Description:
Layout: E1 5-9, H1 17-25, E2 30-31, H2 40-45, H3 49-68, H4 77-94, H5 97-105, E3 113-117, H6 126-136, E4 139-145, H7 148-163, H8 170-182, H9 187-191, H10 195-205, E5 211-215, H11 216-219, H12 222-232, H13 255-276, H14 284-288
Parallel strand pairs: 1-3, 1-4, 2-3, 4-5
Amino acid sequence: MTEPVVMYGIGATKAGTSWLYRYLAAHPDCYLRSIKELHFFDSREHGSRDWYLKQLESTGASLGRRIASGQGGKNGEACLHLAEIGIYSNILRGGDETAYLAFLHDGREEERVVGDITPCYSLLSAECLAHMAEIAGDARFVYLMRDPVDRLWSHVRMIAKRRSKDGGDIPERATRILDKALDGQEDHIVERGDYRATLERLDRALDPDRVFICTYEELFSDAALERLCGFLGIRSIPGNYGTRVHSGTPVPMTVEQKRRATEFLRPQYDYVASKLGQMPRGWGAAMAGA
Length: 290
C-alpha cells in the first residue's frame, strides 16, 4: 500500500477549518478520523494535555448519554466517535508519536491523504512545525486565513456564547470581550489571528512547496478546491458551498467597533498584502472603511 500524504490543517481559528474538515472527511481520496482536532503537538508544547483529555472525556460522556437514549446517529456514527475517543485518549495520554501516526493511518484502505486539522497548531514553534514534517514522511500543511476583523469578531462571539449561561447576554459579553482584546487582554483571541507570526514560523520551518495558503473568502469555490486538491494530490470534487459550519450567533459590529478593530489589526492586513503581493479578495472593504 502506498504511503499517504499526511495533511496538517493548522488554522486559523474561525477561518473555515471545520468546513474544510467535513469536505475532506467526505472526500473518497481522504481518510480522516471522527475527531477533528487531535491537539497532539500543541498539548505537548504548551503543557495543555490534561485539559484536552478532560475535553475528550466530557465529549465521550455526552456521546454515551446520547447512545443510551437511542440517539446514536445514522450508521452508528456516535458509537464510532465514542470508540475513537477512547482509543485516542490513551494515545494522547501516552504522548507517543508512533502511536499518533498509527492512529491517523489505522483503518485506511487506498485513500491518498490522512490528516489532523487542529487550528491551535498555528501557534506552534518553527522547531515543532519542522519536526511534524520530519516524522510524517510526505507532510503538507494547510493554513486558512480570514479577513482579520471578521475573524476576530467571529472568535469573540464564539467565546461570548461559551461564557453565556442562556444566550441572552451574548451581545453584551461580546462587546466586553472585544474591548478587552483591543486593550491587550484576552490575548489568546488575538494570537489566533496573528497571521504574520504564523507565516513567519512556517517560512522558517518548511519548504514553501509544502504549505498551502488560502483565505476563507475564496475557500468556498471550485477554483480554490481545485487548487487545494492539486496540492494534496487528489481528485478535485466540488464542495457543499451552501453549508456553513459553526457560524455562531449573529451580532453586528458597531461602526466604532469596526473602526477600532481595523486600526488594531492594520499590521496584519499590511503584512498579508505584502506576503501575497496584493490584498486578498474581500479584505479591502474593512481597510477602506477605517
